[in-house]
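Lab notebook page, bench 4
Experiment: in silico fold of construct C2
Operator: M.H.
Input chain length: 133 residues
Purpose: comparison with the prior construct
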Amino acid sequence: MKFSKLIGALAVMATFMGSTTAAYAGDACRNVKFSFTNQKDHAITVVKVKYFNQANNKLQTESIRNVQCAAGATCVTRGDNLRDSEGEDLTRFIFVLKNEGGENQHDTSPKVPSNPKCSADKTYGRFVISAND
């Protein structure tokens, strides 16, 4: 009798813990966009964004839909989901770029947002991607 109660209690705990994990995994900040000005003397393509999530104290990386931006232009990404970020402070961003005609990827310097709290449909920026990035 005691053994069956223990098994039942463990099953309830496993169900509860599984649903908690599923809820946590679904807290993506949806349709986030980034606005930036390309101050390089050539076109760039932004392929990823790295962001520091203050709540979990780690740098996370997301592939984004590639955005090509001409020299001197201001561009906005199309909107992507950032995992584990809804309602969290994202305190710095690093963009992963490819230069015009190149395949090698490189990181920009960290960009700091004026309002770090992530929410659905938010546009961060306008950031500057300088000649030194």
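Observations: Strands lie at 29-38, 44-53, 58-69, 74-76, 80-82, 90-99, 105-107, 123-129. The first strand starts at residue 29 and ends at 38.
Next step: discuss at group meeting.
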